[in-house]
Amino acid sequence: MRARLLVFPIKGRNWCFVRSIDRSNSQSESSQSPTTFKHLWQQISSSQKPTAGNVELCIDFAANKMNKAWSGLEKAPPGSFKNKIRSLGLSLLSRVKPSEIFLKSIPKQLTGVEVVFPSSLNARLVRRRLRHIALRGTIVHKNYFYGSVTLLPVTSAFAVLPLPNVPFFWILFRTYSHWRALKGSEKLLELVSDSSKNQNSPEKEHGNEAAENDSDKEIHTSLDPPLIMQASEELDRLLGDGNDVSKCRLKDICKVFDLNTMDVLKYQQLSKD
Questions:
Q1: How confident is the model over 198-256, as pLDDT tens digits?
Q2: Which of 213, 235, 216, 236 is nearest to 224 (CA)?
Q3: Of 26, 60, 160, 261, whose Cβ has the fewest other Cβ atoms within 10 Å?
Q4: So which domain of life are we looking at (predicted)?
Q5: 57 domain-assigned
Q6: Residue 106: which of 168, 28, 25 has the closest Cα?
Q7: Residues 39 and 150: beta-carbon distance below 8 Å
Q8: 76-84 contacts, C-beta under 8 A, 24 or more apart
Q9: What's the domain count of the chain?
């Protein structure tokens, strides 16, 4: 399973990191997840996965339940109590950093990524920024994950109130979100680190004749590297001068490269704050 990532500057040192929408994979992943408790128990009891794999299965099951509950709130009539809860949820979700959304989009099944970046940028600089965001994510989201877990018992005490336990479900969502971002950071860091070992730099390609005597396994690895750097002249043209990319240009980039517009615009909002 491979994915296409887009990396480009929006304003100054503020760069955008986003994954292209892959509808086929998202639909297949959702179809494989258990939909009922009975289905979940059957998969756990019949699977040969280790304990960690079963825990991930339970987490995905809980995430699907939360997504269905959120979809139910979207159908609530305006002015109703459920509609107000949805408005509160949207306000909280708007505070989630775009880098976290990007790292959450990197699944553990990923075997390679194709990084598209403006042709005016240096490939080594783009790869270095990818390594930086992945390495930082492994540290930041691990700390936030453990912090959210410790808050779950505290917020569960609000269940005695005759109202929906919004704090508990929000902390539960943040726990899941940080866990996904942590796993995505680890996977991205693994792919980027492997690429630096498996891919030859342009300086070495002309003077290293010994590479022609590699084994079949190494040749196969070079044909299917974990990271492919692809400079795009079209992306460079859409960005313009790149000093301060406008909202209209960002929307055009989203249409051409099939990106989630809301995720990209979050990076622009981040540069203004």
A1: 444 443 334 444 444 444 444 344 456 888 999 999 999 999 876 788 899 999 999 99
A2: 216
A3: 160
A4: Eukaryota
A5: yes
A6: 25
A7: no
A8: none
A9: 1
pTM of the predicted model over 0.85: no
Contact (CB, 8 A) for 90 and 170: no
Q: Indicate whether 148 belongs to any domain.
A: yes
Per-residue pLDDT reduced to its tens digit, 22-65: 766 544 454 456 666 666 666 667 666 566 556 666 666 666 66
Contact assessment for residue 211 and residue 200, using Cβ atoms and an 8 Å cutoff: yes
Is residue 94 within 8 A of residue 171, CB to CB? The reply is no
Sheet with 2-11, edge to edge strand ranges: 14-19, 2-11, 112-118, 227-232
64-94 pLDDT per residue, tens: 666 676 666 677 778 777 777 778 777 878 8
Cβ count near 24 (within 10 Å): 7
* Phi-psi group of 12: left, alpha or beta (phi > 0 → left; psi -120 to 50 → alpha; rest → beta): left
Residue 8 resides in a domain: yes
| pLDDT tens, position by position, 166-206 | 788 888 889 989 999 999 999 999 998 864 454 444 433 34
- What is the C-alpha separation between 191 and 5, in angstroms, rounded? 13
In a domain, 213, yes or no: no
Look up the domain containing 195 and give its range: 2-200+218-272
